C-alpha cells in the first residue's frame, strides 16, 4: 500500500448530545478530529500507510489526540510536541430545518504557532506517494501559512502527488486573504477538491445558475469552471462534491470530476441521505475515498464513485472520523444500499 502524508490540525470536538442546543447542554460528547486528520483515518482504515503531520501540546490532552489517531492505525511519528494548547471546537448538531453551528476556540493552538524548522521534511516525504492538505490549515495563522508552503515545496521536490481540499472557513479568514494565499499554493497542486462555495470564495470561480439550497445543480456550470481552473492552474483533476441540502437531516449527495488529460467531465450517482446522523467530516471522507481510488489504480470515474459512497456512509456515523471498511464502501458503490442486517 502507498505511503500517504496529510498535514493539519487535530482538535478536541465537544458536541451537544441528542441534538440539544448549546444553552440546553449540561454535558458534551467528546471526539477528536480535523480536516486532514479525518482524511488520514479514512485512508488508514482502507489499508494505506498513512502519516499525519501536526503539532500538539506536550500534555495529557495532546496525548489523547495522538492516541485517537493511533487507534485507527495512523502513524504519528511526525507530530511535533510543541505549543501550549490543543484547538477546540464546539458543535451544536442541527436537525430538520435547524442548521448545525460551530464555535471555534483554536487561536494560538499548537499548529498555529508551529514553525517549519520543527519538521524533517525530507524524512516525512521520503517514499511518499501522496500529500493532502486543506485550506483550513493556512487559515489558522500566518505561521501556519509558512508551514503549509514549506510542506508543499518539500512534497513537490520529492515528486509527490499533491491534493488540496479548498475548504473555506469564514470564521477563520476572509475571502480576500484566502484568495491571495491559496492562489499562490495552487502551483503545487495536482488534484483540486472543493464545492461550489469553496471555488468561489477561495479561487474566485463560480458556477452559473446553481443554488444548492433550492436543489438546483447546473452541471454545465461546473464543467465550465473546471476548464477555467485547469487552464489557469494546470490541475490534473478538478473535483467537487455536490450537496443538495433539503434540510439538516436530508441531503442529496453526489460529486463531479474533470479529467484534464481527456477533457472528460463525469457526474457520479446521487445518494439520498436521510436521516443524517453526523455530516461533519463528510467532505473529508469524500476526499479520502477518492484519493484511495486513485492510489488503488482505479480510473477517475470509479475513484469518484468510491469517494462518494465512502462519504455517504460517513453521514451515518457520529464523530469526525469515517469508521468504515473498504468492503463496506465497495458494497454500497456496487449498488447495495439496502441496509439489511448482516448476520
Describe this entry's structure for a reader.
The protein is an alpha/beta fold. The protein is 36% helix and 22% strand. The chain is built from 12 helices and 14 strands. Strands 1, 4, 5, 8, 9, 10, 11, 12, 13 and 14 form a 10-stranded mixed beta sheet that branches. α2 links the parallel β4 and β5. 48% of the residues are buried. The mean pLDDT is 94.
Short key terms for the protein model shown above:
36% helix; alpha/beta; 12 helices; globular; 343 residues
Largest sheet: 10 strands, mixed
The rounded distance between the terminal residues' Cα atoms is 30 Å
Specify Rg, calculated over alpha carbons. Answer: 19 Å
Shape: globular
Helix content: 25-40%
Q: In total, how many beta strands? A: 14
Instruction: Average the pLDDT over all residues and give the rounded result.
Output: 94
The ordered string of helix (H) and strand (E) elements is EEEHEHEEEHHEHHEHEHHEEEEHHH
Point out poorly predicted stretches: none
Please report which band the strand proportion falls in: under 5%, 5-15%, 15-25%, 25-35%, 35-45% or over 45%: 15-25%
Separate helix tally:
12
> What structural category arises from helix and sheet content?
alpha/beta
Provide a short characterization of the protein structure.
The protein is of the alpha/beta class. It has helices spanning 35-45, 60-70, 110-113, 121-125, 136-140, 142-157, 175-185, 196-203, 219-233, 282-295, 300-314, 326-333, and strands at residues 3-7, 11-15, 29-33, 49-56, 79-81, 88-92, 101-105, 130-134, 161-165, 191-193, 237-247, 250-259, 264-267, 271-273.
Amino acid at each position: 500500500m502507498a505511503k500517504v502524508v496529510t498535514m493539519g490540525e487535530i482538535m478536541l470536538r465537544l458536541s451537544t448530545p441528542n441534538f440539544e442546543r448549546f444553552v440546553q447542554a449540561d454535558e458534551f460528547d467528546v471526539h477528536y478530529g480535523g480536516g486532514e486528520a479525518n482524511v488520514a483515518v479514512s485512508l488508514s482504515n482502507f489499508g494505506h500507510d498513512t502519516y499525519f503531520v501536526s503539532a500538539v501540546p506536550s500534555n495529557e490532552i495532546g496525548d489523547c489526540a495522538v492516541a485517537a489517531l493511533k487507534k485507527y492505525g495512523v502513524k504519528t511519528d511526525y507530530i511535533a510536541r510543541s505549543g501550549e494548547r490543543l484547538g477546540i471546537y464546539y458543535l451544536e448538531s442541527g436537525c430538520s430545518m435547524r442548521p448545525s453551528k460551530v464555535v471555534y476556540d483554536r487561536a494560538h493552538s499548537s499548529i498555529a504557532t508551529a514553525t517549519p524548522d520543527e519538521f524533517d521534511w525530507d524524512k516525512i516525504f521520503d517514499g511518499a506517494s501522496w500529500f493532502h492538505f486543506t485550506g483550513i490549515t493556512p487559515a489558522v495563522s500566518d505561521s501556519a501559512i509558512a508551514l503549509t508552503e514549506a510542506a508543499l515545496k518539500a512534497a513537490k521536490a520529492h515528486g509527490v502527488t499533491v491534493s488540496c481540499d479548498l475548504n473555506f472557513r469564514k470564521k477563520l479568514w476572509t475571502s480576500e486573504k484566502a484568495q491571495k494565499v491559496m492562489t499562490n499554493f495552487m502551483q503545487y497542486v495536482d488534484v483540486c477538491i472543493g464545492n461550489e462555495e469553496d471555488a468561489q470564495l477561495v479561487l474566485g470561480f463560480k458556477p452559473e445558475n446553481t443554488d444548492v439550497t433550492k436543489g438546483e445543480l447546473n452541471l454545465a456550470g461546473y464543467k465550465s469552471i473546471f476548464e477555467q481552473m485547469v487552464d489557469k492552474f494546470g490541475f490534473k483533476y478538478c473535483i467537487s462534491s455536490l450537496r443538495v441540502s433539503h434540510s439538516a437531516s436530508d441531503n442529496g449527495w453526489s460529486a463531479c470530476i474533470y479529467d484534464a488529460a481527456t477533457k472528460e467531465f463525469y457526474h457520479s450517482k446521487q445518494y439520498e441521505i436521510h436521516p443524517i446522523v453526523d455530516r461533519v467530516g463528510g467532505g473529508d471522507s469524500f476526499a479520502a475515498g477518492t484519493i484511495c481510488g486513485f492510489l488503488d489504480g482505479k480510473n477517475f470515474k470509479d475513484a469518484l464513485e468510491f469517494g462518494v459512497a465512502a462519504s455517504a456512509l460517513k453521514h451515518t456515523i457520529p464523530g469526525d472520523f469515517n469508521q468504515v471498511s473498504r468492503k463496506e464502501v465497495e458494497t454500497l458503490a456496487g449498488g447495495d444500499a439496502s441496509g439489511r442486517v448482516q448476520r
